[in-house]
Amino acid sequence: MSAFLLATQTANITRSPAVSGGKVGPQVSHLTGLAMVPPMPVSSETFLAHPAHLRSPRKQWETFIFPTDDGGTASLPDVDGGDGLTWTEESRDYVIKGLARWDRGDSGLLTGRAFLHLLIEEVQIT
Fold it and tell me: Is the dihedral of CA 27, 91, 58, 64 positive or negative?
């Protein structure tokens, strides 16, 4: 059994274009079809506190994104904090709040594989 079997969903990444004339345009498609684990609620250790001035409720999730080829030789996708993430199968949008490369070395199902651990946030419209 491979940990890649957990990556049953796909994600698309959007990114803001470069600043032009002192303005930033809306996010545009950056990467598509990334293999990901379905988002899961974050644990209390991972939760990021929100500034008091934010009035809209927000829900935090975590997910994992794998290299695009199952051979593990591909580099990890170019994803950064502030990018948008769309969970394709559910048509839900998130903002990437944090990420870390996770190298597993000799750890059972993930031997020799690296993947991205993402902390994502969903704004709840009230």
Answer: negative
For residue 31, the cross-strand partners are: 13
CA angle, 44 then 58 then 86, to 5°: 100
What pLDDT score was predicted for residue 1?
A: 44
Torsion-angle region of 51 (φ positive above 0: left; ψ -120 to 50: alpha; else: beta): beta
Query: Using an 8 Å Cβ cutoff, are 33 and 40 in contact?
Result: no
Q: Which DSSP state fits 77? A: P
Mean pLDDT by 10 residues, the chain (126 residues): 75 91 90 92 66 69 80 74 94 93 64 80 78
List the structure tokens of 29: 């498609």
Quick one: which of 109, 93, 88, 106 has its CA closest to 6? 109
Burial code of 51-60, b = ≥16 C-beta within 10 A, e = fewer?
eeeeeeeeeb
Mark 79-90 as b/e (b = at least 16 C-beta within 10 Å): beeebbbbbeee
Q: Are 63 and 96 in contact (CB under 8 A)?
A: no
